[in-house]
Specification:
- The chain is of the alpha+beta class.
- It is about 55% helix and about 15% strand.
- The strands form four sheets. The chain has a three-stranded antiparallel β-sheet with strand order 3-5-4.
- α3 (about 65-70) crosses α4 (about 75-90) and α9 (about 190-195) crosses α10.
Length: about 230
């Protein structure tokens, strides 16, 4: 095919390319891809990327070389052009020679650790006025996904408990509460617990119910007794 006929062909293809009915790879010799082929390759890549992100949440995306293997392509340069085409069509994001799903955000370990520390500091500063998940999330300007990941991480490490009302309870407050119950002179009533902790029924009752569930206390009428182990 001579140069003139190639120019004429590309001019003819241009309206179809604009409507995303065909794809044109312009690295070296021009390559035309049908809409069906683009969809097929795109689905193959997005499935692979979903698995990749699940296994490597800390990585910004799959390198172009790995994408080439997934798509069974021998030419990495061609693969890069194809990934650029995929980005134009909204199939994936392609930057820094890496492809990722459009809605994927890489896991930032340093930021995550900072958010964990911020959550703990914020919660402990409030003492017995324990924040709910929603209150802490809003106060620290975290997304729902960030908060969910932090909660799961801390619960798995047994460094956080969620009690009635979705209040956040760290071990430091739990240990202090147990000591306060031990030091209450007389019956352990809701009023006595409110006085000991300087909190309200909103927080004192969920704490007592949590300790009941753990077998630390047992409710007897309107009071609790500590169970010695």
């Amino acid at each position: 095919m001579n140069e003139v006929s190639l120019v004429e062909l590309m001019r003819a293809v241009s309206p179809f390319e604009a409507r995303a009915e065909v794809g044109v790879i312009r690295g070296g010799e021009a390559v035309l891809l049908s809409k069906r082929k683009i969809k097929e390759l795109g689905e193959t890549l997005t499935k692979a990327l979903a698995l990749f992100h699940g296994e490597h949440p800390e990585r910004k995306g799959m390198p172009a070389e790995e994408c080439a293997k997934v798509l069974d392509l021998q030419d990495t340069k061609f693969t890069r052009e194809l990934l650029s085409l995929f980005e134009k069509q909204g199939i994936v994001k392609f930057a820094d020679d890496r492809a990722r799903l459009a809605d994927f955000e890489p896991f930032d370990e340093e930021l995550f650790s900072a958010n964990v520390a911020a959550l703990k500091k914020y919660t402990l500063q409030l003492g017995y006025s324990m924040p709910s998940i929603e209150e802490a999330q809003a106060a620290l300007s975290l997304t729902a996904e960030e908060m969910k990941r932090i909660i799961a991480y801390l619960k798995e490490k047994k460094e956080l408990a969620l009690i009635t009302g979705a209040f956040l309870l760290f071990p430091e407050i739990e240990a202090d509460f147990k000591e306060k119950l031990t030091n209450i002179s007389g019956d352990i009533t809701l009023a006595a617990v409110r006085d000991a902790t300087g909190s309200s029924r909103k927080y004192a009752l969920p704490l007592l119910e949590y300790f009941d569930s753990k077998g630390v206390t047992r409710r007897v009428g309107d009071k609790r007794i500590l169970i010695k182990k």
